[in-house]
Known about the structure:
alpha+beta, Ku70, Chain: A, Domain 2, 7-stranded mixed barrel, single chain, two-stranded antiparallel ribbon
Amino acid sequence: MAARSIWNGTLTFGTVAIPVKLFSATESRGLAFREVRASDGARIQHKRIGVESGEELAFKDLEKAYDTGTGQIVLTKEELSAADGPRPKVIEIEHFVEGEEIDPVFYDKPYHLGARDGGAHAYRVLLAALEQSGRVGIGRFVLRSREQLVALRPLHGALGLQTMRFHDELVPADEMELTTPKKDPSAREVRMAGKLVAMLADEWDPDEHRDTYREAVMEMIEAKRRGETPQLPEREDEGDDDLLAALEASLAGDGEGAGRAEKGSGSKAKAKSKSKAKGKG
């Protein structure tokens, strides 16, 4: 079944306008749960109840209010809609920057862009230009009644549009209670940690990573469906704080994580070495 676009509009840069459609590039695989009463499993529902009156309120009667600290300011749906600006159906690319200049922490949700009727050629030209230049378009558009800062870049052989966080949405490290080391690491610790990093080095392969939490919950659900009592594993000890001992054990292959990584990395390393040998031959 073909995915349906969630937004149709126009992508602009300079005086160029390309009719486009927007698709979500991700799909939630989270488990959906119902809230029920523990004693008998009866389903429940949530209602909008007025705090002062105790009456149930209809959605059409609701508006949004901003708490100023000394009171609240109510904004109507029409007033909030006006904040979208005069061009709510346009993705305006303002400038292009080097992709490597953008810290990944600024990226948020990814989308795919497709061309609508009359925009296929210009779409392909822009995609090729971005692939060759390594640049990322920075602009903004309105999605679900909120203006979004966005990055336009090649994604999986097509144009990708990724919403971004504004700079004031990032919490500076100096505002957090981060642990400050009481002493500098020893040269031996750094050397051993570097060796462990090298031992666990591998190529990024998204297919190797699974949602083990979802799998564990589904196993419990299936066990209960069969009328069985799920077997809950015991929590593992966190271990001690002897860093050198932990590094030595990992380098010796005693650590479970190191063992698994070594196994995967070893097979890939052998494949790489065979490939290089064939190339030389």
